[in-house]
Backbone:
């Protein structure tokens, strides 16, 4: 049975982060082993310190914890290999599911149209600020409203300031929203800048679907709307998940105003969050059998 790699408490690294206590208890009930990774040490580049509490020769792990930038995830993968351990989602699969450019082509017909500009490690201060640059990038999307985000997350809580653009052909407004999003993300800016066409959705929140080896094993509410649990049509989405070929994936689905289910985001299921009150056991029970 594979083990589960969980995050340590940042204040007491020898203990589990309380955020993952329920998952740890469920894992232990199944008879699976757990090991701790120091997430803060990993983000700081101390990979040896991050995996110091992972037993040598302990085999394969599913990670369940806080988000990890793709570069740091690759370093974690290498550090575990040096200790005779491994991640069941390798660095390539993690990047594919975690960042929009990795999954977009597979879900193109199911998700809002998108374009992006990769940064490749460029400091946020070096991101282009010229209005003409962003106007040219967004031109394939045509006119109308749009959304600005990085490769992983948006600043939706600063909706009008750093996320939503009322008219993509307005280059001044578009470049201003991009600049504000980049500034607010700072060193946490992931991958680059994404511009997406805006679609209008019906009330009722989003459903987060958890997939293991191409099969849906759990449907929860989205963490931002824990009180809403729509029931999505999974047929076309399942086909795309299987084509993507990643082992543990989440898809966030919402019903567009015209009655079509749309994929809002795809994510690596190791770093996707549960809404408050959700039972993680159906997912965790499916992982040892995968």
Residues:
């Amino acid at each position: 049975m594979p083990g589960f790699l969980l995050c340590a408490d940042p204040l007491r690294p020898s203990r589990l982060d309380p955020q993952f206590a329920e998952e740890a208890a469920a894992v232990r009930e199944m008879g699976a082993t757990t090991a701790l990774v120091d997430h803060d040490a990993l983000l700081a580049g101390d990979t040896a310190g991050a995996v110091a509490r992972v037993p040598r020769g302990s085999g394969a792990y599913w990670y369940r914890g806080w988000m990890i930038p793709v570069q740091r995830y690759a370093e974690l993968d290498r550090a575990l290999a040096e200790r005779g351990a491994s991640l069941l989602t390798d660095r390539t699969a993690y990047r594919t599911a975690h960042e929009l450019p990795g999954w977009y082509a597979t879900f193109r017909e199911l998700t809002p149209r998108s374009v992006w500009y990769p940064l490749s490690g460029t400091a946020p201060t070096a991101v282009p600020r010229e209005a003409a640059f962003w106007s040219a990038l967004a031109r394939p999307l045509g006119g109308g409203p749009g959304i600005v985000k990085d490769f992983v997350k948006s600043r939706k809580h600063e909706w009008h300031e750093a996320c939503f653009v009322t008219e993509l052909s307005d280059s001044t407004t578009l470049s201003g929203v991009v600049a504000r999003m980049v500034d607010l993300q700072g060193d946490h800016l992931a991958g680059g800048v994404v511009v997406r066409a805006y679609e209008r959705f019906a009330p009722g929140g989003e459903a987060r679907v958890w997939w293991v080896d191409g099969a849906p094993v759990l449907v929860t509410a989205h963490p931002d709307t824990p009180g809403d649990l729509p029931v999505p049509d999974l047929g076309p989405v399942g086909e795309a998940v299987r084509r993507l070929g990643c082992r543990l994936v989440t898809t966030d689905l919402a019903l567009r105003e015209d009655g079509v289910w749309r994929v809002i985001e795809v994510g690596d299921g190791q770093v996707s969050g549960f809404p408050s009150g959700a039972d993680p056991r159906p997912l965790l029970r499916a992982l040892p059998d995968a």
